[in-house]
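Task card 7
Instruction: Convert sequence to structure tokens.
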Amino acid sequence: MYFDLRTYFRFLYLAFFRAKDCHFRLPAWRVVRLLLFFSLFPVFELFTAICLLLDHVFFPGFRRLELPKPLFIVGPHRSGTTYLQRLLARDDAQFFSLRFLEIVFPSILQTKAIAALGRLLGRRKERLKAAIRRHEARRLGSFSAVMHEMSLFEPDEDELLLIHTFSTLSLLFLVHASELEWLMYFDEKASHKDRKRIMRFYRACLQRQAYCHGGTRILLSKAPYNCFRIDSLYRYFPGCRQIYTIRNPLEAVPSMLDMARAVWQSAAAMEGFPLQAGAYDVIKAMYRYPLARFAEADAASYEYVVYDTLLQHPSAVVRAMYEKFGYELREPFQKILEAEDEKQRAYRSPHEYSLDQFGISREQILRDFRAIFARFDFGVAVAPEPETDRVEGPAPGPRSGPRMPSEKE
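Output:
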């Protein structure tokens, strides 16, 4: 059983009867939303579970499908993960990514039914698609401004696949963050049983979509919370590559806190941000944990991409990545990269964030992220870090990556 029924009932209890303990108010509109969610969600998941089961009957070949060295983008939020994913996804001769539609409906049967519906609609399909996009712009415009442009038809973070298991950080709008701490530190705190349940489901969903896409292209995944699953990705996707996008913490921290505050205020119906300290701890972990794990990995299995360099010179960053991982750079995609270079020269971010609004000083960031500033050239000088803070680089010579226990262990 992939669905975490125990957590579902616990969250139902907390959302309605311990809302104040979770820093939530319960105005009438939130009560209605919670009632709709907790009543309709199990029905939808029952339908999804039936479709996933039928996949084994009608499309059993997906289980034998090997994912050829999938590529995981695992950087923190606001570090260029979405931009890099959607740029690489345009090399559709080589990569495929899950669109939001395929995340909501992960079954092969569902995917093929939607494709069949599109064929039946014929020319009306594009008109319907345009109407849906206009509706998305109206309904999701403010949310897209906080997060990233969202659409059923665009590649998105496949972390959301795990909402089908009721085991994802996307459920933070229901309960206090402490209830999901084991997901925030997945490799370290999740039980073996939960890791196995979640990662097997995640892998099976990705296999299904690879099957729908012909089984030959490389999976291109983006999920910031995979920062906490570095070891699990190596274990369940042997031979995978990981790209860690990293941004100057002086810029990234206020940006990520602003995003977290906006999402929380929307869900909690409250002013302020009482969970800021916890959010700040998660941000620090999203920097420290991946770098510590990559220090033990085969240097050929991962790459660091610096946010500013990516935005200023996307073509150079992608070309270097292709050369390292042995991807073929075909002429159509080369032209896309050249056009992207021109586009980025004129780009100016519409967002400005200040640490002052969160009561965090520059000195605190320099101190808390000292190992990051020492490791990467962000143009900021810091004092040498203590041994306990240091994040080492990869050891020289061939490595086979972190030693991962088998699924039977």
